[in-house]
Design a protein that fits this description.
There is one protein chain. It contains seven helices and no strands. The protein is mainly α. The relative contact order is 0.11. The model has no long low-confidence stretch (mean pLDDT 89).
């Protein structure tokens, strides 16, 4: 099994405890000496990098002399908040933190594949699926929190006598959202990685730079689409009649 340097380091430090934990949970372990896969290690790296970035940002917060990183994150917060205000409404602020954190994690996961000896964890289907599942549960939880038991009435449609038909359609539609979020993000990042690697192996100078730029653009676009759809789902779940 090919291991990235950071994956090899984690396996060297944590192979024993991780293998013991997986064995206790009755999860089969193909490589007990290297139970941590590359995509798991890359998620851990992205998480640690983001936490370090947030700590540095918190230590350097300034009203009078904000730095570049503070301006960047204020811009992200303003963009997510503005989009939430337009789509969700006046109660969007309680969801801004989740949407911003989701977008930052996905964007960093998309772009890290451009760094030598690293891979984009979102080029593996498990990671986009994990983000999709968390988002799916999050917007349902917020819908129940905002509307109580009335939240489940929208699954039956606007006309009560068509509820028997609308219920299975709505359930299938909501379950399909996890698959659509997963496939859209995974397929685009995986394809971008493959195209970039192919051109680097054929022409190592010049032309691949164009595809690196394309990959960066796709990374931003797919992050935006994922967060936009999460915002739309939250708007639908938390809407209520006035």
């Amino acid at each position: 099994m090919h291991q990235l340097p950071f994956t090899a380091l984690l396996n060297k430090l944590l192979a024993g405890p991780v293998t013991a934990m997986l064995t206790a949970l009755h999860v089969p372990v193909a490589h007990p000496d290297a139970p941590i896969a590359n995509y798991v290690a890359m998620q851990i790296f992205v998480f640690l990098f983001a936490v370090l970035l947030f700590i540095l940002l918190r230590l350097r917060l300034s009203v009078d002399n904000p730095g570049f990183v503070q301006h960047m994150f204020e811009g992200i917060h303003g963009f997510v908040g503005g989009q939430g205000r337009e789509i969700i409404g006046h109660h969007h602020t309680r969801f801004d933190s989740y949407l911003a954190a989701l977008g930052i994690f996905i964007l960093l996961s998309n772009l890290i594949g451009l760094v030598p000896t690293f891979e984009a964890p979102t080029s593996f289907p498990y990671v986009p699926f994990g983000c999709a599942v968390v988002t799916w549960f999050y917007y349902h939880y917020q819908g129940i929190r905002m509307n109580g038991a009335k939240y489940f009435l929208h699954f039956f449609g606007p006309v009560w006598w068509l509820g028997w038909l609308m219920l299975p359609i709505e359930i299938f539609s909501h379950l399909a959202r996890m698959m659509s979020l997963t496939i859209r993000l995974f397929a685009n990042i995986f394809a971008g990685d493959m195209v970039t690697m192919a051109f680097f192996s054929l022409v190592p100078i010049g032309i691949p730079l164009l595809f690196i730029g394309l990959h960066i653009g796709v990374s931003f676009i797919q992050t935006y689409i994922f967060v936009l759809l999460a915002t739309v789902y939250l708007a639908e779940a938390t809407a209520h009649e006035h």
